[in-house]
Task: structure prediction
Amino acid sequence: MADQKYVVGMGEALWDVLPEGKKIGGAPANFAYHVSQFGLPSCVVSAVGDDQLGREILDNFNAKKLNMLIDTVPYPTGTVQVEIDQAGIPQYDIKENVAWDNIPFTPALENLAKNTKAVCFGSLAQRNIVSRETIGKFLDAIPAENDALKIFDINLRQGFFTKETICESMERCNILKINDEELVTISRLFGYPGIDLQDKCWILLGKYNLKMLILTCGVNGSYVFTPGKVYFRPTPVVEVVDTVGAGDSFTAAFISSILKGKSVDEAHDCAVRTSAFVCTCAGAMPELDIIALEGC
Result:
């Protein structure tokens, strides 16, 4: 890969099998794709199987001109059965023991880490020890002088997480992205369920010495907590097709704006508008309406 600094999405690359057919997905791939739409060099790191679904993922990413380090491993390519409820909220059935559970740590991946200025990772891809250890090694291989943003987009799914993995990931990250439902789950896990959402966020921000904590609350808006200040944006009212990938696009837009030197206020505004637009589209990787997102 070229000797430049990348924004990396690391973890699951898979097919979301929706009622109308299959669409490419996986939070890290969604994140990397949207970052690339904001004009920054991005790369998705994952694994696929030596099968038709895997080849279609590689073809899809190539068609999107998305940089990738995706190994082919002897496991089936990941799929997720997605059912959309009456409110447009996706429900997931995530298949286990698949390719992205087994991402190898390779010399190419170590080299990418040395040229990383931001990386987004979640809890789902850490459900298996192989990918969990690879993510850990990648984070450790990023040089301190890169001053990289390490975003833990917690992304709790189907009980595929442990308290230990969550704690270790929070200690490794410097930005936490979480939604209101996940915050309730984490609060129960950590033993402080009886306080309001904002106080929980302040506790996590301080306990893990985070640069920022991003809290999304669906139709009830979103918050960005930084040491000493909190920012709020209401959620735009749009005609929702589905919310698949909306959170990933929010994170991508926010991080892209911060890396471009925008203020937290400006980045937050861009993130809110981007995720609202994605909600008006089917699937997780629509082409962004850059005119509507002007100023991001």
User: Anything to note?
Assistant: Residues 226 and 294 are 25 Å apart (CA to CA). The longest strand covers residues 42-49. The chain has a mean pLDDT of 91. Residues 264-279 form the longest helix (16 residues).
